[in-house]
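Handout, section B. The chain below has 89 residues.
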Amino acid sequence: MNKKIKLTKEQKTRLKILKERGKWDYVLKYGVVRFGGFMFLFFLVMDFIEKKEYLPIDYIVYPIICIISGLIFGTWTWHKINKKLQKNE
C-alpha cells in the first residue's frame, strides 16, 4: 500500500522550508505550542463546563500532559512530512 501522493509545487516548497528550519523548530512550534496549547485550553474549558474545582496539582499535571503530548504529536508529524518529501522526490 505504498501510494505515491502527488504534491503540488507549492506544497513541496512549503514542506522543504519546514524541513530546512529543523526538526525541533517544527516540533516546538506545531507540536508543543499549537497542539499542546489547544489541548491545554480544551482541558480548561471542559473543567469550566463541568464546574470542576481545581486542585493545585492540576496546574502542574495539565501542562506536563500537554507538553508531552505536543512533543509526541510534533515528532510524529515531522516524520510524516519527511516520508512525503522522500516519496515525491
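Note. The helical segments are 9-21, 23-49, 58-87. Compare this with the example in section A.
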